[in-house]
Amino acid sequence: MPHKKPPKREWTFSQKLYNQLISPLRVVIAYAHCGSKRLRMAQDTLRLRGEWVRDTVIVVACGLHNLRVTSPHRAYLAHPPVKIPNQSE
Q1: In a domain, 19, yes or no
Q2: Is the overall model pTM greater than 0.90, yes or no?
Q3: What is the chain's pLDDT, residue by residue, as a tens digit (89 residues)?
């Protein structure tokens, strides 16, 4: 989890660095979560009985998302490497 800014204070250097390092990972995770929710069945509340049905729907949604991502026309853009600032900043 990212660090929240304390009220009326600034982040410490380590908190700022941690937030900068974790930010690109959070973007990729958000893209993957939204991509798996493109399947309408995975978006809505599933009222079918049995956990195996819900598990199967999520597996199918993730499989379709992975198929879409591996397509050369739909690949995610690579994030640029994060610059680590000097402590003097």
Answers
A1: yes
A2: no
A3: 777 777 888 878 888 888 888 888 888 888 888 888 887 777 777 777 778 888 888 888 888 888 888 877 765 555 566 677 776 65
